[in-house]
Each structure stands twice: as structure tokens, then as C-alpha cells.
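Could you join me in thinking about how sequence relates to backbone shape in a protein? Would you write everything just below, so we can both look at the same thing?
***
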Amino acid sequence: MSAVARPAAGPVAVPTVEIYLTDRLDVACLAPVRAVLDTAVLLRPDRLVVDMTRCVGIDAAGVALLLDLHRQLLRVGARLTLRSPSPRLRRILRISRVEQVLHVVPEETAASRRATEPTGSTP
């Protein structure tokens, strides 16, 4: 899992913070993931995106962490988005009925969005 986020000294509101999960989201990695997510929440984003493209699995502890994060963001008027979970992860989220609560953006939506975004090159 990789992320870069540093809390500011005073109240800060940023439009979007993105976190990229690069391994399983399970009980074994809960503490470091929670620390990164807590730091991201300190930035007071309007939207926190958790990219799950490279997340290979999730257990009940990971689902509980996402639900807790969702509630925490909801209390401050922010939104959690899960981006690009694999079909296997989507199935787990659907079976656990988390998909009905969390905003999940499927792979094809995220891929098509990236395809239409500017590359950042200057003419």
C-alpha cells in the first residue's frame, strides 16, 4: 500500500485525496492502512478515493475499516469512493452488502475516465 499525505498545521480542505492499495486489505495490514487513512482524513478532503486496482483481496476486517472510514467522512460532509475493485472484490462487496452503502466506481468507468483526462503535457 502506498500513499503520501501530510497533515497541515491548520484546517485544510482539499478537493480530493487518493490512496492506492497495492496488497490485500486484511487484518494483517490493518494498522498501517488505518494510519495512512487517518492522515488522509486530517487533510479534510471533499472526496477520498481508495484505488483498489492492485488490491488482491479483502477480509471482514478490511470491509469494517472501509465502513468505518465511510462513516467518519460522512460526519464531516465528505465522500468515500472505492475505485476499480476487481470482479472478485466487487463480488465480496456485493455479498457483504457494502456495495449498497459505499460509492464504488467499476474498472471500466475509471479506465474510460483516465483515457479522457489530459496527459499534462504543455504544447
Q: What stands out?
A: The first helix runs from residue 30 to 42.
